[in-house]
What does this fold into?
Amino acid sequence: MKTLTILFCLSLAFLTAGLTRGAEARLIAKVDLSSQSMTVSDNGKVLYRWPVSTARKGYRTPTGTWSAKRVHRMWHSRKYDMSPMPYSVFYNGGYAIHGTGAISKLGRPASHGCVRLHPANAKRFYNLVRKHGMSNTRVVVQR
It folds into this structure.
């Protein structure tokens, strides 16, 4: 009986350790509001660092950590005159990382709160999220 109890406890420990590791995100998009940049890492290895545009004066990009919630190859903002949002990765309600046509404004605040990227970079990020899965993707927005 003692051996059986020990085996059960060891099995439970290994199972729990496996679940903990599985809960960690592989793909991380870290948005830095102060530098207006986004760094994308896969399993701790930096893949990309891109300029972004976040909320301009009068709007806000919330800080925090979220998992990706949904993706759309093309989305149109219902709130802002059906503006196109190519390669959207939504992470917090209506907040998303997406491509923009306002490329000249990247690197400084210009959005209504979303994180804007060059369309080619938005496509790369979108494809990475689809590859790794939304549950394995984290979006971290910090000052």
